Amino acid sequence: MDQRSQGLVAEALTLGYDGRRIVDSLDVTVPAGRVTAIIGANACGKSTLLKGLARLLAPQGGAVYLDGTLIRELKGKELARMLGMLPQSPVAPEGITVLDLVKRGRSPHQSWWRQWSPEDEEAVHGALEATGLTDQTDRSVDELSGGQRQRAWIAMALAQGTPTLLLDEPTNHLDLTHQIDVLDLVVDLNREQGRTVVLVLHDLNHACRYADHVIAMKQGRIVAEGAPADVITRELVADVFGLSCTVITDPAGGGPHIIPFGRHHALLHEAKPAVASS
């Protein structure tokens, strides 16, 4: 079977801005029906890659395929019914309510012969419930806290109902409880609805616990990819992040868990005196 025929695939993808290359000739295959986390240091090309996969950034070279079709050949609404994208810092129209924002996720499913339907209503209600916003529907998005605003955008992406969902730092601005809530929700969408999800994440331990597949990037290239247990090592963390650490088994998930050593922790560890025997 042609590798392009299912899921999201990039071949020799080159991306950049103003003639400057950020991502150079990458081959990427997103496993269909799995949760993939893209990790790497700041400015390594993670968000740029996600924008290229979502057609928000035109490639300087190469191509992206979605279920065997060149993504650039898909019409706007057709693509929006197949692939949803939540960018890192979305901007809401001034004064829009939470409910109206989430309803906008259904716009790819509307046409002159198909107006608002019970299916649309159910999708919006489910997205609001999943993100804990059912009691915030009449509030202006402008009035929300950073965490609530992020959840409203996630609800809009969920309401879109696409089989493939790309999320750029979806846990940004969220406290720890809501970070876990969002990531649990991602796993639910994957396991219960079979959605393919790609996330850009900064927290390595979240990536290890919640992703089936990890893509590690450095300076615009992929340096490792695969299951977290096969990819995340002390050597990789040192190479990609310039960070000393130890990797242990996650007592909750069974995968790798990173314990970082800051400069002072490393020094204390090295300088700790031996306990004298009695």
Number of domains: 2
Which bin fits the share of residues in helices?
Answer: 25-40%
Largest sheet, strands/sense/barrel: 6 strands, mixed
Tell me the CATH topology of the largest domain.
Rossmann fold
Widest sheet, order of strands? 6-7-8-3-9-10
Radius of gyration equals 21 Å
Question: How do the helices and strands follow one another from N- to C-terminus?
Answer: EEEHEEHEHHHEHEHEEHHEEH
Would you identify the regions where 5 or more consecutive residues have pLDDT less than 50?
267-278
On the 0-100 scale, what is the average pLDDT?
88
Q: Give the name of the CATH superfamily of the largest domain.
A: P-loop containing nucleotide triphosphate hydrolases
Q: At CATH's second level, what is the architecture of the largest domain?
A: 3-Layer(aba) Sandwich
For the termini, the CA-CA separation is 69 Å
Describe the fold and architecture:
The protein has 278 residues and is an alpha/beta fold. It folds into 2 domains: 1-74 and 163-240, 3-Layer(aba) Sandwich (Rossmann fold), CATH 3.40.50; 94-162, no CATH class. Helices cover 34% and strands 26% of the residues. It is built from 10 helices and 12 strands. Strands 6-7-8-3-9-10 form a 6-stranded mixed sheet, with helices on both faces. The chain has a 4-stranded antiparallel sheet with strand order 2-1-4-5, with helices on one face. The protein is globular.
